[in-house]
Design goal:
By secondary structure, this protein is an alpha+beta fold. About 20% of the residues lie in helices and about 25% in strands. The chain contains six helices and 15 strands. The strands form three sheets. Strands 5, 8, 9, 10, 11, 12, 13, 14 and 15 form a nine-stranded mixed beta sheet that branches. A four-stranded antiparallel beta sheet has the order 2-1-3-4. A two-stranded parallel ribbon has the order 6-7. The structure holds uracil.
Length: about 230
């Protein structure tokens, strides 16, 4: 791969910044100052910037605080998509949403180019828990909580794995589910005769939405967050 692309992928630099760093003599490959961004490098090459080693990262992970009104799709004819929220330098090839949210749901969206991880996070067998703050029209009874814990079966025959609800108000609480079926939470509560009036995803497998991110903002995951997530693989 080209050296300038290597720097962009690894350090989240723009192509212009990478080229400037190279022409400014700040980048070395195998301890020899690089002269051009078109220089071909492979993973085992020792690349450094300002004397510090730069290790190539094949996968990248972005957390986004999704506002209402955006769909989790690559393109959509009628609605804005979560990709419209990403600053230009975050819009990389092969990036996809790991666990979609409905248009009116807010909260944590994870975007990655690591297809294996995305697949595992969604696989029911892996039992990866996602946490949501659910606000309901009516209060949630103890019986409802027990039914959720037993696993629901809809009239259509569709089943949902056990889910755990921890109320903090009569009609609001934290729900933990390990699946990601279409409109799952709305359909679960509808089957209990209730209605979801607001839904916010707080975490995916221990990865919690950074509270300092305002709606519509995103950031790359930290090394520690990536390690936590990659344990799923
Ligand atoms: N369940 C839903 O009903 N909607 C979401 O956006 C996520 C889970």
């Amino acid at each position: 791969m080209r050296l300038d692309k290597y720097l962009c992928d690894t350090l989240n630099m723009t192509r212009t910044e990478a080229k400037k760093a190279i022409s400014g003599g700040r980048v070395a490959v195998n301890e020899i100052a690089a002269k051009s961004g078109s220089l071909q490098v492979v993973e085992k090459d020792l690349v450094s910037l300002d004397g510090s080693p730069v290790s190539y990262r094949r996968y990248f992970y972005i957390m986004l605080h999704k506002p209402q009104g955006y769909v989790c799709a690559n393109t959509d004819r009628r609605s804005r998509t979560v990709f419209d929220l990403l600053p230009q330098e975050y819009r990389k090839k092969d990036l996809f949403v790991c666990g979609r949210l409905d248009k009116d749901t807010t909260g944590l969206v994870l975007l990655t180019n690591n297809g294996t991880l995305a697949h595992r996070i969604l696989a029911p067998k892996k039992c990866i828990f996602k946490e949501y703050i659910v606000t309901l029209r009516d209060k949630v009874s103890k019986e409802d909580i027990m039914k959720l814990e037993e696993g629901l079966k809809l009239k259509s025959g569709q089943t949902f794995m056990p889910a755990y609800f921890y109320p903090d108000q009569p009609n609001r609480g934290l729900l933990k589910i390990s699946e990601g079926k279409f409109h799952q939470i709305k359909r679960m509560f509808a089957s209990l005769g209730n209605e979801v009036v607001a839904l916010h995803r707080k975490s995916i497998h221990g990865l919690t939405l950074d509270e300092s991110l305002a709606e519509g903002e995103c950031r790359y995951l930290t090394e520690a967050e990536i390690v936590g997530l990659e344990q799923v693989i």
